[in-house]
Write a structure and sequence with these properties.
Length: about 110
């Protein structure tokens, strides 16, 4: 019986060590989570996010642009047909009615 108690004591001590190790890891994960949700990204996360965006932004924007159809109206105006789900984005031009060299004439402006 004493042998069994000693074996159980060793098992319990090993479990307590594991709990302590996992508790430390959980504390580090909670700290990391708190930093991320407040925008204080650790450099390795920030670098990974920037790298991912640089690699994927063109494809993401390209996919989004495919959802917009461009054409001409019957009276000759340029028009962009936008999905209804994009109601929070305003499509406009730079509001110039004449051609002025070296200006923003004719640019499409997206506001949100």
């Amino acid at each position: 019986m004493l042998k069994q108690i000693k074996a159980n004591k060793i098992s319990i001590e090993e479990c307590l060590k594991l709990i302590e190790q996992w508790s430390d890891k959980a504390d580090k994960i909670i700290e990391l989570y708190q930093a991320i949700i407040t925008g204080d990204f650790p450099p390795e996360f920030e670098n990974a996010i920037v790298s991912w965006l640089q690699e994927n932004a063109v494809d993401i924007v390209g996919d989004l642009v495919h959802m917009v159809f461009f054409g001409l109206t019957l009276d000759g105006y340029f028009v962009a047909y936008v999905p209804e789900s994009w109601d929070d984005i305003t499509f406009n031009t730079s509001n110039y009615d004449i051609t002025i060299p070296d200006t923003d004439f004719g640019r499409l402006v997206l506001s949100y």
